[in-house]
């Protein structure tokens, strides 16, 4: 089971990723959560102690140099395009209450996709995690699909785009869908977040008629308060947890059927 979560910044994708990871873990699955958002907050949302001390893989210069055959801190013309990565998860993941977490860091952007050692290592590692691991993998991504390629897209059982009632959020969702379909990823669904009233729900459904909706998460000030107090948001609101549990119940048969087929 491989699930990617994307959406515009601030819509609540990290909240959804952390709660889904907890639901899978509590149901007996082996869970690997991947923080692939440049604004890495998944560790804090899951409640890991001292999340600020976690170094993203993209910032591990010596590791990148060792695996790609370059020199730390220096750019080179020649480096390995297929670095060894299968031993990295056990070395660099963090664990808490049955959930393993890896923080990727930011993929560099530039002309032609920036074929640099950092990007090569990150892509190789994500390919390994999505294609070769048996855990449930839940990846919290930025407002795009930079971490996914055509090979990894085939392994993603569901791309969930989180939206809130707002035009910019909807435009981001449409852009993500277009980019995902360009690489062959068509199993896309929407989760509406920060729903205050029925009209918010109706607005999202009417604005995204071509999307599948997995569910809706109510707005709860307790989530905001927990975030401001630097407390785990995953346990801050029972009504939010209940909403995500319903989404989880829809995902499980979908991913199992995808694997069987």
Folded structure, characterized:
With 261 residues, this protein is of the alpha/beta class. It has one domain: Rossmann fold (3-Layer(aba) Sandwich), CATH 3.40.50.300. It is 41% helix and 18% strand. The protein is built from ten helices and eight strands. It has helices at residues 13-26, 42-46, 61-68, 88-92, 117-131, 150-153, 167-182, 198-207, 221-228, 238-260; strands spanning 2-6, 31-36, 94-96, 99-103, 136-141, 158-163, 188-195, 212-218. The protein has an eight-stranded mixed beta sheet with strand order 3-4-2-5-1-6-7-8, with helices on both faces. β6 (158-163), α7 and β7 form a beta-alpha-beta unit. It starts with a strand and ends with a helix. Mean pLDDT is 87; it is low at 257-261.
